[in-house]
Design goal:
Structural class: mainly beta
Distance between the termini: 86 Å
Oligomer: single chain
């Protein structure tokens, strides 16, 4: 009976630890940094600015984001997803902005909001800026295929040689 109780206790402890680790790995978002005034994206990044803030999909041709805005008891919050990694998201509301910085880059987050206003609730969202650096794709070299005929071989691709029987 004691062995069974000990095994049960170990199993419950293991499940609890696993759930705590999973909750940490799948946290809702990074903690914002409050920035006075109208913060802008870091140097070296491109800005996709959404103004006015509304549900929908927005794109500048490189970055595409989908935003879901909702009202909560604490004020307006939003979730977002994107097609490429985002370095930072700025939620501007009232006289200040919350800057959410992602390292490594993120392709989505939930529960973001503007800074808390004098009412004790999140200020209304005036605009959201998504900051990203479009990673340069590796250079590609294209070698045009060539065709040469020789009585013994025919080459149709620089990498493929076919031997022709006599």
């Amino acid at each position: 009976m004691r062995k069974l109780l000990a095994v049960g206790t170990v199993a419950i402890t293991a499940v609890t630890v696993a759930l705590m680790v999973a909750a940490t790995a799948f946290g809702t978002h990074v903690a914002p940094t409050l920035v006075s005034g109208n913060p802008s994206c870091p140097a070296g990044t491109t800005t996709l600015k959404v103004e006015p803030v509304a549900d929908g999909t927005f794109s500048d041709g490189t970055l595409t984001v989908t935003i879901d805005v909702r009202d909560t008891a604490g004020g307006q919050v939003f979730d977002w997803t994107s097609n490429i990694g985002v370095d930072a998201v700025i939620a501007k509301g009232g006289p200040n902005g919350n800057v959410y910085t992602y390292n490594p880059e993120a392709t989505g987050d939930t529960g973001l909001h503007a800074p808390t206003g004098p009412s004790g609730k999140f200020a209304g969202l005036s605009h959201i800026s998504f900051c990203y650096d479009a990673d340069q794709p590796p250079p590609t070299t294209t070698i045009p295929p060539s065709t040469t005929t020789d009585p013994k071989t025919t080459t149709t691709d620089p990498k493929t040689t076919t031997t022709v029987p006599k």
